[in-house]
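Hello,

I think I submitted the NDP job twice by accident. Can you confirm which output corresponds to this input? Input:
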Amino acid sequence: MSLAVIEPATEGVMAEIPRGGVAEVDAAVAAAKAAFPAWRAVAPADRAMLLHRLADAIGAESEDLATLEARNAGKPISDARGEIGMVADCFRYYAAAPERLVGRTIPVAGGVDLTFREPMGVVGLIVPWNFPLVITSWKAAPALAAGNTVVLKPAELTPLTAIELERIALEAGLPEGVLNVVVGPGSVCGKRLVEHPDVAKIAFTGSTEVGRGIAQGAAGTIKRVTLELGGKSANLVFADADIEAAGRAAPGGVFGNAGQDCCARSRILVEKSAMDEFMAAMEAAVSDIRVGDPLSDETEMGPLISADQRETVGSFVTEDDVAFRGSAPEGEGFWYPPTVLAPMTNDDRASRDEIFGPVACVIPFADEAEAIRLANDTIYGLSGSIWTRDGGRALRVARAIDTGVLSINSHSSVRVSTPFGGFKQSGYGRELGPDALDAYTDLKNVYYRTEE
Ligand code: NDP
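Support: Only one job matched these inputs. Its output is below.
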């Protein structure tokens, strides 16, 4: 069976590739299992060197990888370049890990107690289409650094950079079987990985609905699971903020990657007294967004990933609610203009569900207590932003919001060196930063009797 990979900006077929099933997953798991003993035994400095080489090799092919990602995911080339840069940075960051996976000595009677962080074995990675290679690297880099081997299942909509990564890893010197890619449907290949008895852990990014099924499927073999799921994050704008700056920045917080971002600040909560000034600044910024050909250096927003996605996004928009829109090309391509709905309530469907497209809801609030209540009135808890000039308020509100990642007077919250992940139904486990290694190792405790 083959799979036609579509280019969202043209609706044309950009590649036809083989489509795997259960047999291909089983073969990849067997290869990863066979490669595990030797990989975990590679001396820490040598494993570090191999990961540095992989980072260098990704860097050397970064322009080709960025172009492939921009075409396949429909994202602006400038964004794709940034993402591929982060992929290389991520492998470089975790290249330092093999030599820093230190344990403890714990005082006990009659001997010495030692702890070790042991690799788990074969780790299955299931990755979505919105940030294909960069999300892969958040999982693959710490998994490999800790001494695990990997089977990666990219989304069928965007498998091309994962296939390139498998080749690049081999050329960079990673042994055969250490990093394996299987392209195929999630309901077949993803499910098999989740249930496979020889897979020790699943790291998943995607929808909350599929994540729930993965947690259930993994229970059969007591697999470790990391889930990075959906979001409906709030951008809180207090009247004491630099309102002009908050309004100009708001589109960047929600329309990046055409809104197909689990961190999208898609509920914009604005203090009533600042509403008019905020909306004027945001409208000007939205009308400036350049939506178009992903391969143009000028482009700031591309198309949606698919016709299905465009239909879903459109189903959330009622014309009467539209305060203003940006522009979008006509003709071939899954285009949708950046769209702002206002004034909305937190109970509207568009305010409650993850739309995963360029649609933002603006919701007024009266005071700080109401802002916190509205921000927390969601099943999700992934990301968010707070705009205020009052430092005490910034930290007070940040502590009160049930969400894993926050930014103050900014929408930037994802870095290789800092933890990322959700509260509530946005998932569990943390990626990136120093803590991610805990999610790819099991803790072993050894008591060594020394008394005679
Ligand atoms: P999914 O959760 O369906 O897909 C994510 C990954 O999981 C893909 O690789 C998919 O494979 C795989 N998958 C699908 N079903 C299963 C299964 N039963 N067992 C194991 N793996 C499976 O997300 P969608 O791509 O369908 O997007 C739907 C919605 O999910 C979006 O509109 C958005 O709301 C949310 N989403 C959130 C993301 C986030 O970053 N938090 C990322 C992507 C989506 P394949 O697609 O190849 O079949």
